Amino acid sequence: MALPGWLESARRWVVRPPGSTVDLGSLWAEVARAGELEAEVARLDDDALVSRGRGGRAEFCAVAREAARRELGLRAYDEQLVGALALIDGRVAQMATGEGKTLTAAIAAAALSADGPVHVLTVNDYLARRDTEWMWPFYQRLGVSVGWVTEKSTAVQRRAAYARDVTYVSVNEAGFDLLRDGLCTDVADRVQRPLGAVIVDEADAVLVDEARVPLVLAGSTLAGPDLALGMAGVVRDLRPGEHYQLAEQDRTVHLTADGIAAVERALGAELYAVQNLDLLTAANLALHAEALLTRDVDYIVRDGRVELVDGFRGRVAQRRRWPDGLQSAVEAKEGLTGSGGGSILATITLQAFLNRYSRVAGMTGTALGVGEQLREHYRLEIAVLPPHRPCIRRDEPDRTYRTAGRRDEAVIAEVTAVHATGRPILLATPAVADSEALGERLREAGIACTVLNAKNDAEEAAIVAEAGAIGAVTVSTQMTGRGVDIRLGGSDQRDHDRVAALGGLYVIGVGRHDSARIDDQIRGRAGRQGDPGGSVFLVSLDDDLITRYAPAESPSVADAQRIAEQVNLEIHRNTWRYHYLLEQHRVAMADRREQVLTTGRGSEILAGLRSAEHAALVRLHGADRVAAVARTIVLHHLDTAWADYLGFIGELREGIHLRAVANLDPLDEFHRAAVPEFRRLIPDAEERAAAVFAALDPSGADWTAAGLGLDRPSATWTYVVDDDALGTDMSHFLAGLIDLFRTR
C-alpha cells in the first residue's frame, strides 16, 4: 500500500536527509532490528550481555543501548545508534548540539575496538579526561578497556593509556606522541601502538580548519644574543603610515624608506648590508609583532608567558607558539623573558597525521559546509542525522549597522530589554578583547554578566553549564569544543519550564565569523533537543570580515563569508601542495629509520664498509653490542640529516615566492630544489655514519652515545604553528585570491 505523500516525504528525509551524501536506509533497518531485540536483551545478565554483543551489528546496538542504560542511566536514541553505525562505516556524522555525540562515539569506539586500537580525538585535554571518566562504566560493562592522555601525562602513563582498547586524547597530543615515537632509539621507548581506527570530535574544525597546521617537535638549544628585546624598543617608536605600511588586507607589513632610515639611525648600522642579515630579520620580526599581532586578540599574557589564542575556538591553544623568532619578538614586545629556541627535529601536518590511521571517522554539528574538502582530502562522506526532537529555535535575520559603535549600542539595548524578562542570554564575540569590552559595558549598564574567554578557560565547563539559568548573561568567544550543553534552567534544570516559557536561551552574535559553520555552532547552543530558543546576529559594515572580504561596492555578510570560505579552501589546497612532497619524504625517511631500528639494517650498512675489522669487533664486544652501536650511529645521522633538511625546507619556503618575480612557478621551483636535496639525504647520512663507525677503537670499552659524540637534545618541546606566520608566498597567494573572488 502506498504511503501518504507527507509520510513518504518524511521517510525519504530520514533515509537521506538534505545534504547527506550517505543513504541511511540500511542503518535505520539495523537500528529497527535492535529495537526489536531491546526487551530480550534487557533480560540478560551481565556475562550473557557481553557475549550477545559479539553477534551482528543489530545485536551489538541492542547490547550497547542496554549497557548504557545500566551503567550510565542513558537510553541511546535511535538517532544515536544510526550515528554510531555511520562512524563504524567510516563516515562523518553530522549531529546537532545536544544530540549526544559523546555516547554515540563511545558506542562506535567499543565496536571498532574488536579490530584493533581506537583513538577518540578530542579538541582539548579536559574533554579527553571527562569523556573517558564519564563513559568508563559503559566500556567496562562491554569488556572494553579505556584510557586517556593529557599534556601532563608521563611516558609511562601514555604507554599504558595507548595500550588500552580505546584511548581518548587531544588531536595535538596524539600527533606529538607520533613525532616523539619517530625519534626513539629503542622500540621499548615508544608510547603508541600502530595506528588503527580514529573518531574525530569537532571533525570539521580538526579535519579542515586546522588540518594545514603543522605540529612541530623541536630540540632545546641555548638562546643566542638577545636582539629581540632591543629591536622591540626600536620599532615601538615607529609610526604607521610614515615608517611602515600595512598591506594586503593588513596581513603583511613592511618598512618604508623613512622607516628603514629610522631603524638604521637607532641601531647605528646598515640594515641591508650582507653582514647584518640578523639585524634585518630581527627588525622584520619585531615589526610584525608590533603591527600585526594584537594582545587579547591573537594572544594573551598570563603568568608571565605569552599564550596564543586559537582563532577557531577562542581559547588558549595548547602548546602553541609561533616560529622561534616571532615568538621571541612578541615576548620582547611584552617585556617578558624569552622562552628560548631550538631546532626542528620533526614535523607533520594534522592532515598527514590523520591520514595515517587505517580508518577515519568523525562527528560534528556542522559538516555540510566542508563536504567538498572532506571528500577531497580524506575521501569521507557525510551522514546527516535528524535531531531526536524537531528544532523549534527561532533564528532572526541579521541586523546590520553602519558602524561598530552603533551596533554595540544596539547590543546593549537588546540585552537590557531581554534581561529584564529573566530570559537567559548568550552573547558570542569574535575575540577576547571584544568579550571583555562588551562585558565591561554591560556592567556599566547595571547588568551582571559572566565573561568566558581564553583568559579563564579553566572555568569554562562551570560557566557554560549555568548559562541557561534564569537571568544569566554570558559573554563568550566562539563556542566550538566547549563540550558542555547549555540546559534550560541551569545545570540542575530546576527552572527549565520557566525559562522555556520565556522563549529559552537567546543567542546574540556580536559580529559574524569568517566561516558560517562557526556561526551555526553558536546558534546551535539554543534550541537543544527540542527546547525553545532564539538567535540573532548584529553586524556592522566595518567589521573585519566585511572590510577584508566583501566587495567594496556592495558589502554584505553573505558575500564576505562566501569569499572567506573560498579563500580558506584554496589556502588549504595550496598548503597541501607544498606539504604533500614533504610528507612523501617524511614517510620515506621514516621507513628507512624503521628498518634500522627494528632490524639489523644498521649493521648491514656499516659492516660492508668495514668488513675486515667487523669480525674483530664482534669477537671483542659480541654481535649484539656491535649491532646496537651501529644502530645508534646510523639513527643519529639519519635524524640529524632530517633535521637539517627541515631547516633547509623552512628557509626555502620563506623565500620561494620571490621566484614569481622571474615568472617562475613557486611550487615548481620548490619541488626543483627539494627533490634533489632529499635524494642526497640518506646516502650522505649513511656515509657520515660509516665514517664514525670506521673510527671506532676496537678495544674501547665505553661505546656510549656521548662517547661517540652523538649527543641528542637534552630536552624537547612541542608547538603548533601557522604554516607561514610571516606571510611570504602565502600572503601574496591570499591577496590574489581575495581580489579574484571579490570580482566574481
Description:
The radius of gyration is 28 Å and the shape is globular. β9 (299-302) and β10 form a beta hairpin. It is 50% helix and 14% strand. The strands form 5 sheets. Strands 3-4-2-5-13-1-14 form a 7-stranded parallel sheet, with helices on both faces. Strands 15, 16, 17, 18, 19, 20 and 21 form a 7-stranded parallel sheet that branches. A 3-stranded antiparallel sheet has the order 12-6-22, with helices on both faces. With 744 residues, it is an alpha/beta fold. It is found in: Cell membrane; Cytoplasm; Membrane.
Oligomer: single chain
Q: What is the number of helical segments per DSSP (H or I, 4+ residues)?
A: 28
- Number of individual domains: 4
Q: In the CATH scheme, what's the topology name of the largest domain?
A: Rossmann fold
Give the strand content: 5-15%
Domain Helicase ATP-binding: 82-240
Subunit structure: Monomer and homodimer. Part of the essential Sec protein translocation apparatus which comprises SecA, SecYEG and auxiliary proteins SecDF. Other proteins may also be involved.
Protein name: Protein translocase subunit SecA
Catalytic activity: ATP + H2O + cellular proteinSide 1 = ADP + phosphate + cellular proteinSide 2
Characteristic key phrases:
alpha/beta; Rossmann fold; Pre-protein croslinking domain of SecA; 4 domains; 7-stranded parallel β-sheet; 22 strands; globular; disordered N terminus; ATP binding
Please outline what is shown here.
The chain contains 28 helices and 22 strands. By secondary structure, the chain is an alpha/beta fold.
